[in-house]
User: Which sequence fits this backbone?
């Protein structure tokens, strides 16, 4: 393999995350293999009790009191994940040229939490805007989570967020891949973050659509593919990766989680909410083509499926088309939202993190909470309720789809020289 070719190969060398299942890859993975969901009931302004995936990371680990007071929850999630990713990568952060570091974070939305809170606050003072915080504008600009990372870590390279609805986690990784290939940066911090459970608006919006999950047991509320599924469990969280050119990773003897080998983003152009199976099929096919792989080469397909009645059916139709069970005997299909709910802009990045250990242990974590499989969701190769032994896992395809018809598929491969 030539040095020039290695400079175009992009690898993941570190991962930092916070999720309802825990705050590192090993803890999250152990819960996934145990089949352990972790959803809570929380009290939400104007909504009462709702199900939510809540993160319990220690924000004070990387932030001081003043920084926490002036910043945002999404910023804290991003800082925690970025710092943990750098620590996990083993890179000597003090020696890194900070102008050559880029921060690319996917988000679903940003600023709703802060604006809702300020409106609530001034409502206690007859809507007197003198009580409106001067921190509101920097808290609510769309680049905030990535910007808070640069402030905390002293990064002087480019930073921005990618607003790609629930496809955003994958989109952040894809953006980083291209900035590295173009030589714009030498190290990228990329992934997705979400603070969605702190805004009543997203809960109210899903409820008005008839798409908010409810179950007497919150840990069974998120149930993709199950005949009794009834909607989304909203979650917060984040996953950020250190990404490098293979030449740079080799030079410092870095451990390598995987190589990013394929990707695609397209648009349904059909409906603002209802997914389109044909476009999802095209998205997965194009990602595989860029990777130079066939569907039969894929060992794990991590689905986006959110536990909505129609959304799950549409994606399963697309998966059956691309990965027919009889033609893809190696392929296994799973889902992570059944454990943690839907982490919105963080979903794709978090779900990838839950599957990456399969490259080492050869196991496929299952979709849980499937008491009665919906026949329309039967792809013929679903892993349900118990882990499956896949032998050697070499290729993972990660799906993340979002509102307004944005689709993303990311293909990663077990690293090999």
Assistant:
């Amino acid at each position: 393999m030539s040095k020039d070719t290695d400079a175009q190969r992009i690898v993941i060398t570190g991962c930092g995350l916070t999720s309802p299942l825990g705050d590192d890859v090993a803890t999250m993975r152990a819960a996934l293999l145990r089949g352990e969901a972790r959803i809570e009931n929380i009290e939400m302004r104007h909504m009462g009790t709702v199900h939510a995936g809540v993160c319990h990371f220690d924000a004070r680990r990387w932030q001081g009191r003043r920084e926490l007071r002036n910043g945002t929850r999404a910023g804290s999630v991003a800082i925690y994940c970025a710092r943990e990713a750098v620590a996990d990568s083993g890179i000597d952060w003090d020696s890194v040229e900070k102008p050559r570091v880029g921060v690319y974070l996917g988000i679903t939305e940003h600023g709703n939490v802060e604006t809702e809170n300020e409106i609530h606050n001034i409502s206690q003072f007859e809507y007197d805007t003198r009580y409106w915080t001067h921190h509101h504008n920097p808290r609510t600009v769309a680049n905030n989570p990535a910007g808070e990372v640069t402030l905390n870590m002293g990064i002087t390279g480019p930073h921005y967020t990618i607003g790609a609805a629930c496809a955003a986690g994958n989109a952040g990784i894809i953006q980083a891949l291209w900035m590295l290939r173009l030589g714009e940066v030498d190290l990228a911090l990329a992934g997705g973050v979400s603070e969605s459970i702190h805004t009543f608006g997203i809960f109210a919006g899903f409820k008005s659509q008839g798409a908010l999950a409810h179950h007497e047991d919150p840990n069974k509320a998120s149930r993709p593919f199950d005949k009794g599924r009834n909607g989304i469990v909203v979650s917060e969280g984040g996953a950020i990766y250190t990404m490098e050119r293979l030449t740079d990773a080799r030079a410092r003897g870095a451990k390598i989680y995987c190589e990013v080998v394929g990707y695609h983003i397209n648009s349904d152009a059909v409906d603002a909410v209802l997914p389109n199976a044909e476009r999802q099929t095209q998205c997965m096919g194009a990602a595989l083509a860029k990777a130079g792989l066939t569907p039969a080469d894929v060992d794990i397909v991590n689905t986006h499926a959110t536990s909505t009645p129609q959304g799950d059916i549409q994606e399963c139709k697309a998966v059956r088309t691309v990965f027919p069970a009889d033609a893809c005997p190696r392929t296994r299909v799973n889902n992570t939202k059944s454990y943690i709910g839907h982490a919105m802009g963080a979903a794709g990045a978090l779900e990838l993190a839950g599957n990456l250990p399969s490259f080492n242990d050869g196991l496929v974590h299952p979709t849980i909470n499937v008491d009665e499989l919906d026949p329309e969701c039967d792809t013929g190769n679903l892993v349900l309720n118990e882990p499956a032994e896949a032998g050697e896992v070499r290729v993972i395809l990660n799906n993340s789809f979002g509102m307004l018809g944005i689709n993303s598929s990311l293909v990663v491969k077990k690293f090999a020289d």
